[in-house]
Design brief:
The protein is α/β, with parallel strands linked by helices and 385 residues long. The protein has 2 domains: 10-39 and 283-383, Aspartate Aminotransferase, domain 1 (Alpha-Beta Complex), CATH 3.90.1150; 49-281, Aspartate Aminotransferase, domain 2 (3-Layer(aba) Sandwich). 41% of the residues lie in helices and 13% in strands. It is built from 15 helices and 14 strands. It has helices at residues 10-13, 19-22, 42-54, 67-79, 94-105, 122-128, 149-157, 178-190, 219-224, 250-257, 261-265, 269-281, 283-307, 335-343, 369-383, and strands at 29-30, 88-91, 111-114, 132-135, 139-140, 145-146, 162-166, 194-198, 225-229, 243-246, 321-325, 345-346, 348-349, 360-364. The chain has a 7-stranded mixed β-sheet, sandwiched between helices. A 3-stranded antiparallel β-sheet has the order 11-14-13, covered by helices on one side. The N and C termini lie far apart (43 Å). Bound molecules: pyridoxal-5'-phosphate (PLP).
């Protein structure tokens, strides 16, 4: 059997119909949207095959299909955290967890803090819930990133109601250190605010970093925080539609208990099945896949140093996304456009991640090392023209 943690060949990937493979023609290497090129974890594949064989394609309500217990034991084993299965709910995806949480936490026009550069839909999800975005960019001293705690404190003093945190952080692959999260929770608590912590990339934290679930940092965080979790990034299940609201205190547990049934009802049945199996039986595959990702992280550094030394790159410590500083190439504010046109490499457009994204682009390296090598070679060739 082929190695399930080795990326699929391009000709096979091009038969996929997901966004990554449907958006561009065969002349383009797609390295933009956060989908991985590895085969599904074998236990997930088997469970989905069985569901198809059974015609198990009906409604999900009311059971959670074992997902809450599966997530609790996964969180226990990976992060030493045992969230209560009784304080969770499922819905379609992490974006819906964020919007449905915010709908219940803010009033019309309330400001919610984001820390750019950050996952672009955050700029849309807050308005979708009726709020306004207040950007307090991450601090960056050129070597490490950090939350601008003083800036967040000021934002609250000026009326912000809460923080939409990306933990670990997309696009930087930055894993927020515990002490900063503790300090954040003190500030939020002092202002009577909330934190919605998007932790979708947490299972992909690299072996040289340590992920801290926001709800564990203090009693206050447990009370004023709500976490969005999912197996969809770690196991490449985005199309199956399943994510979790995770809470640890009475205030947010009440919010989750009072969600309309319809919010849970929209969860995908295949998503529930795949999520439970991923969290329980997919650990070995995940470890192998993470090793492949970490290998590519190193390879990307070596390739850039050799072929495209003008590009700025700091190794991420979570997930498979590289935030490339391409300002020295002279490709303008949105270098991904030039990369697509001139190098036939599709990167995610930096400016969509906030103003700090001008001159940057994000590259997805969850692919075969040969594809990654070709992508950097194409970018280098275009840069040398
Ligand atoms: C930080 C972050 N949140 C949410 C999502 C989207 O998750 P979902 O498909 O579950 O809405 C992504 C996808 O890449 C992401 O990077």
């Amino acid at each position: 059997m082929a190695d399930p943690t080795r990326a699929e060949p391009l000709e096979r990937l091009r038969r996929r119909t997901s966004e990554k493979w449907a958006t561009y023609g065969t002349e383009v290497l797609p390295m933009f949207v956060a989908e991985m090129d590895y085969p599904l974890a074998p236990p997930i594949k088997a469970a989905l095959h069985e569901a198809v064989d059974l015609g198990d394609t009906g409604y999900v309500y009311p059971a959670d299909h074992g997902v809450f217990d599966a997530f609790a034991s996964f969180a226990q084993d990976l992060w030493g955290w045992h969230p209560s299965p009784a304080m969770m709910a499922t819905t379609t995806d992490v974006s819906v967890v964020i919007v449905e949480s915010l709908r219940r936490l803010i009033g019309p026009g309330d400001a919610v803090v984001v820390t750019s550069p950050v996952y672009p839909p955050f700029f849309d999800l807050i308005p979708e819930a009726g709020g306004t975005v207040l950007d307090v960019p991450l601090l960056d001293d050129g070597a490490r990133y950090g939350l601008d705690l003083a800036g967040i404190d000021r934002a609250f003093a000026e009326g912000a109601r809460g923080v939409l945190l990306c933990n670990p952080h997309n696009p930087l692959g930055h894993v927020h250190p515990r002490d900063e999260l503790v300090a954040l929770s003190d500030i939020v608590e002092r202002h009577g605010g909330f934190v919605v912590s998007d932790e979708i990339h947490a299972p992909l934290t690299h072996t040289d970093a340590s992920f801290t679930p926001y709800l564990t940092v203090s009693a206050a965080a447990a009370e004023h925080g709500i976490a969005a979790h999912s197996a969809s990034k770690a196991f490449n299940l985005a199309g199956l539609k399943c994510a979790l609201f995770v809470t640890a205190g009475e205030r947010m547990a009440r919010l989750v208990r009072h969600l309309p049934d319809e919010v849970r009802f929209r969860t995908g049945l295949f998503g529930l099945i795949a999520t439970r199996v991923g969290f329980t039986e997919g650990r070995e595959w995940l470890a192998g896949t993470l090793a492949a990702i970490e290998e590519n992280r190193r390879l990307l550094g070596a390739l850039l140093a050799e072929k495209l030394p003008q590009a700025g790159y700091r190794e991420p410590h979570a997930s498979y996304l590289a935030w490339l500083d391409l300002r020295a190439l002279g490709w303008g504010d949105d270098p991904a456009r030039v990369a697509r046109r001139e190098a036939k490499v599709a990167l995610a457009n930096g400016p969509r991640f906030g103003e700090r994204g001008n001159g940057f682009a994000r590259l997805n390296f969850a692919c075969d090392p040969a594809v990654l090598t070709e992508a950097v070679e194409r970018l280098a060739a275009a840069a040398s023209v």
